[in-house]
Structure formats: C-alpha cells, structure tokens
Design goal:
Elements lengths: L6 E4 L2 H16 L6 E6 L3 H11 L4 E9 L5 E8 L8 E8 L3 H9 L4 E7 L12 E2 L4 E4 L12 H6 L1
Bound molecules: 1-O-pyrophosphono-5-O-phosphono-alpha-D-ribofuranose, hypoxanthine and magnesium ion (MG).
Enzyme class: transferase
Cofactor: Mg(2+)
Main location: membrane
C-alpha cells in the first residue's frame, strides 16, 4: 500500500501520554516484572512512561530497524539483542503493524510479556497487551515524527 492510500492517525504528545498510562494501568494489574526491554526506537518513549508508572528502573533495549522512509517494510536489521529467554521481562514497543517485529522479538525472548500502545489487525495476535486498535490501512504518526503546520480549510481542499 502506498503512502497516499493510507488513512492518517496523528497522535499528540498528550494523547500518547494518556494512552501509555492506560497501558500502564492494564500492565500493573497483570503482574510484576524484573525490568523493561524497549524496542528501539519507537518503544523508547512509551517504555519511559511505563517505567515511571510501574516504578521500574531496570531498562534494556533490543535495537532494530525495518521500515524505510516510504512506509514500506524492509529487512529486519538487528543491531543489539538481549540474553536469556525473557522470563519475567516486559517488552514495550509503540505498535504492532504486520507483526513481523513482534514475531522476531518473541522468537528471541519467548517468555517475555509483549505490550504495545497501538495494534493493527495483522499484528494483534502477536501482542499480549495493547490499548488502541486501528485499521490495517491506517498509518500512525507519532508526536516525535510530526510538527504542527498550516492546512487548507476542508472546502478549499475539496475544490482543488
Ligand atoms: O509490526 P511491524 O510491521 O514489524 O511494524 C512495527 C514496528 O515498526 C516500527 O519500527 P521501525 O522498524 O520502523 O523503527 P523505529 O521504531 O525506529 O521507528 C514500529 O516502531 C514497530 O517497532
Ligand atoms: O503506522 C505506523 N506508524 C509509525 N511507524 C510504523 N511502523 C510500522 N507501522 C507504523
Ligand atoms: Mg520500532
């Protein structure tokens, strides 16, 4: 799917904070964790918010990249992993889309609990806990990727 065919779902800092806190409420009801593993880079901000809420100070990272600038999934590139099987650890990422990243990380850390803020239908079965589902043809714009700018009034956009 090309970028222009996608629906847009921009997320503000405030909304992200509120939804990450909703995830923390859900997670605190599930159990206690040895620590958090953040999936870079998208999981870093959500992991910081959740670590603060759950009073967790032990934070590790799985460092990886897969998407190109035109929103197309590419090869998964693992830059840094973590040892062990993930038992007792909480993995945090911003979202699951196709589920490829989650599948890869779950194979590496099969006993960890995998949580994201957002989930699309294809990735949903791979995540243990999430808060908001959006359709598969929606692209989520996180606050660190966007800035406010002028847009045409709707009537003008319809005319052009
Ligand atoms: O379910 P998937 O189709 O695998 O997509 C989800 C992953 O894609 C994005 O990361 P990306 O690799 O783009 O890097 P980033 O976190 O640095 O933005 C996002 O943060 C998830 O980690
Ligand atoms: O919808 C998305 N938004 C931001 N990054 C992503 N990586 C995969 N899907 C998405
Ligand atoms: Mg990511």
């Amino acid at each position: 799917m090309s970028v222009s065919q996608q629906k847009h779902f921009p997320v503000s800092w405030e909304e992200l904070h509120r939804t990450a806190k909703a995830l923390a409420w859900r997670l605190i009801g599930i159990g206690e964790w040895k620590g958090i593993i953040a999936i870079t880079r998208g999981g870093l901000v959500p992991a910081a918010i959740i670590a603060r809420e759950l009073d967790i100070r032990l934070i590790d990272t799985v460092c990886m990249a897969s998407y190109s600038d035109d929103h197309r999934p590419g090869e998964i590139n693992l830059l840094k992993g973590v040892g062990g099987d993930g038992d007792g650890w909480l993995i945090i990422d911003d979202l699951v889309d196709t589920g490829r990243t989650a599948k890869y990380v779950r194979e590496m850390l099969p006993k960890a609990h995998f949580a994201t803020i957002y989930a699309k239908p294809a990735g949903r079965p791979l995540v243990d806990t999430f808060i908001t589902e959006v359709s598969q043809d929606t692209w989520i714009y996180f606050p660190w990727d966007i800035e406010p700018q002028f847009v045409q009034p709707i009537a003008k956009m319809k005319r052009s």
